Amino acid sequence: xxxxxxLLMVFILIFGLSSCKYARYVYLDTSSSDISDENTxxxxxxxxxxxxxxxxxxxxxxxxxxxxxxxxxxxxxxxADESAYPLPDVIMSAFEASDALAVECxxxxxxxxxxxxxxxxxxxxxxxxxxxxxxxxxxxxxxILEEKYGKQRVESFIYYKPIMWYMLIxxxxxxxxxxxxxxxxxxxxxDLADEDDKEILEIESLEFQYNMFLNFSAxxxxxxxxxxxxxxxxxxxxxxxxxxxxxKSGDIDYLEEMLLGEPPAGYYSKEELLLINEYNKAMIIDRxxxxxxxxxxxxxxxxxxxYVVGEGHMLGEDGIVQLLTDAGxxxxxxxxxxxxxx
Length: 342
Description:
The protein is an alpha/beta fold. The protein is built from 14 helices and six strands. Helices cover 45% and strands 9% of the residues. Strands 4-3-5-2-1-6 form a six-stranded mixed β-sheet, with helices on both faces. It is globular and about 60 Å long.
């Protein structure tokens, strides 16, 4: 079965919201009965000498010939379990040596008006969501929400836009996975930074990230919702586990193919491809440029910074690693292992 950037992976590999997610689109043949078997990640080629609980995630060192600054690029995944730890010594040593930790947003210390955000998700003209999306999409999404929250509670949801329904259903599916935000890598490093009184730098903000959702076109919101309800919980969680195993082993080829692979010809209509481009530009490409600019500022200020953002931001020709390389910085991928030596 062929796959594409999946609306479900963007939130665990790219998006650092408070208890939130990352996603893109996966090609899903809903008539196929062998989805799990065909998409199950195979890590059998990894050396048996590595501790099976060890993780060896992607990690880069960035320096400049014109400054004494150092950026340690660590591609995070926002949900995990205890098997992600311990991290390699070289990663932990780099964190300890750094002057500051940079993260997408400092959730713990964020001054964010959640009530204002939720209000902005409401239709202001008295209409309800079923006035704006196809009836079959509404009915299927309603069924999923009612099974989780009950019919009476869901009655109030009809005044919210599709993006809110998407977020609610995405969270329902993700909650069935044993991987949690409690073990997420950005949370882990923020806790360590607090313990060490290390400065935490915010690359974006909660307001910035939520505003991206609010600025999505009505057509994109509908597309995201309709795409998500095409998944079963089993398909959804299997894709998360596959991605997690690839993240742990640092399998850049698998991650780039899963996140950045092109759709087969004719899979999406021209209109749908335009919506995917809108999504990718807002969620990935434009944000990568902002993250690249921030990394440049740290280097120019001669800072040593441990820089943690979702793994998806690091990868591909539009990723931070390639942007820094193209700008003439010295970018070195650091290979390391935990557990037994190879």
